[in-house]
Amino acid sequence: MCIRHAVPTIDVLKIDAEGWESAVLAGGDWRRYRPRMVIAEAIRPNSTAPAWLDWEPILLDNGYLFACFDGINRYFLRQEDSALLSQLATPVNYLDVYVRYELLHRELELKKAREELEELRQRLADIAQPPSESRRR
CA separation (Å) from 106 to 57, 93, 111, 121? Predict the structure, then answer.
């Protein structure tokens, strides 16, 4: 599949195969295709039981470095990008000051609605103004 569909550089590969992560990783050509980051679901489906012991050696043996665990996924960087490892030392958290997409989307919708309302108010004000002396003649 990668031969037909892969881009020259794969930045992130996310694997969530509901317990089949080991088979997916075992089928990868890690010498030819080297995603910068691999994120794999690391717990057994519908549990908190670790599953990475089955597949983590595949990534480590192919030149990937463990970066972090967020409670569900394990993050790995290829050795070529080891300088970025410190950026992933802690998972996403409140101190990153990120905004969830849903909230951002709603804020953008609200901004657009306010702009449209202001435009309508201006049109209404223009219509409500009595004609000027020059326009009456």
Answer: 43, 22, 9, 22
